[in-house]
Amino acid sequence: MTLPTSDARPIGIFDSGVGGLTVLRTLARRFPQESFIYLGDTARVPYGTKSPRTVERYTLQVADHLQRHGVKGVVAACNTASALGLGALRAHQPKLPVQGVIVPGCRSALNVTQTGRVGVIGTRATISSGAYRTTLNLLNPTIEVSDIACPLFVPLAEEGWTHHAATEMIVRETLTPLLDSDIDTLILGCTHYPVLKEVIQKVMGEGVMLVDSAEAVADELEQRLSDTILPNHSGAERTILYLVTDEAARFASVARRFLEEIPLEQVEMVDL
Amino acid sequence: MTLPTSDARPIGIFDSGVGGLTVLRTLARRFPQESFIYLGDTARVPYGTKSPRTVERYTLQVADHLQRHGVKGVVAACNTASALGLGALRAHQPKLPVQGVIVPGCRSALNVTQTGRVGVIGTRATISSGAYRTTLNLLNPTIEVSDIACPLFVPLAEEGWTHHAATEMIVRETLTPLLDSDIDTLILGCTHYPVLKEVIQKVMGEGVMLVDSAEAVADELEQRLSDTILPNHSGAERTILYLVTDEAARFASVARRFLEEIPLEQVEMVDL
């Protein structure tokens, strides 16, 4: 008897909305043979303002739905769900390989920092959970972590106020405590924040490296595909299916900007 | 046989979050003999960024839940739900007296305007629906309506950036088209906006009257209570029950600020 060496089932990726498409884009480029199902919980976005119990409940519902689509593993591309939902998800579906964005983001930051002083920004729910702080300190107990919740960054990013004086004012005022903490590395702990990268870099100064976890997540998945999940060597053309909980048409128009050359063909609305 | 003249059942009020508490406060003061059930759909807030179909679905779920609690009528204290959900709700539950905030707000504005040029601000969903524009023109076809969506006002209000230079900058830039339209009355078409009243007034100038619909809703309900709904003359002490879809403790801490002297005793979490 030979063990199977290929698994053509898709990889599930989810986020509260469109932000996780940057993670999908990175993974779709890196793994051209893999099929993906992206689930954006666009009716219930944002997760970052909600309570731990609600985020946990939503995470389980989303993962159950992906599993009904026959995924071979799940990537939580949402920082809030990664921080608050994955413990419950692993307990609920112990056989499903699950990967979040927090551990890869922390590893990436630890590779980059010279001084050992790392900053983290995220939604209120992500920062309150302490998930980044705990993970950084587990990986390296000598790291000094400064974290801060940035609740206005998601609406500013979603509404496209990326290059406006008011945005710079809000970013500067929100990040002031980090400026005093003398960090050399800053983790963008929310998939929405990369679109505000320029203004965040301007406020923090050139001496601070910004860490966006999409690439780190791809590295981690590469490891997984040679480890617990089997890659797809079937040779069949890969598919990408998009599922949303709010209107599909609205999602499609925004998603194209995030996806760049990655195709957006099948978008279906589902009710969770 | 004598007809009943009193109905001790509570009146249901709902909003996507805490904003509708300003309506509850006004109604609770004006009708001290009436019991209320407030339902804040705090897990799925905001409604104003969602599609018509999703807002409609949420409105029906919320009203069904209130009806299971035995309400004698429902007030939609959410402008987005009033704009997009009430048609479906009336079709779904034709016997349930239902009142929105849009008609009362429009009546109020028409009483105030001298020039017949009225502005409306609201969420993207409310403005896109055209509900204010249609209602104003039904009530008075000669009225000139200028409306504009203000998607950043809700997060600014929720995060407490009510007196900040960045907020004034965003309010000014968003409202610029209204400044050019020479209105004398502006409807605050979202229950969150009254907390930004000062900066909106500053930007619009003293010549523009701001209309907040909470008082107008109370006038309309007074009419209803002598008309389709029976008032409560039982003499029993009234109760106010609060239902939320996200964490009750978090709601309670914010709600106290909105409710002023109105008591907040029973808060229960429900799953819709």
UniProtKB/TrEMBL annotation, chains A, B:
What one GO molecular function would you report for this record? glutamate racemase activity
Q: Which residues form the active site?
A: C78, C190
First-tier enzyme category under EC: isomerase
Q: Which UniProt keywords apply?
A: Cell shape, Cell wall biogenesis/degradation, Isomerase, Peptidoglycan synthesis
Binding locations of substrate: D15, S16, Y47, G48, N79, T80, T191, H192
What does the record give as the reaction this protein catalyses? Answer: L-glutamate = D-glutamate
Record bears the keyword tRNA processing: no
One GO term under biological process is: peptidoglycan biosynthetic process
Pathway listed? Cell wall biogenesis; peptidoglycan biosynthesis
Database matches in Pfam families: Asp_Glu_race (PF01177)
**Entry EC number(s):** 5.1.1.3
Functional note: Provides the (R)-glutamate required for cell wall biosynthesis.
Q: Which family is it part of?
A: Belongs to the aspartate/glutamate racemases family.
- Name of the protein: Glutamate racemase
Q: Which organism is it from?
A: Magnetococcus marinus (strain ATCC BAA-1437 / JCM 17883 / MC-1)
Q: Which gene encodes it?
A: murI
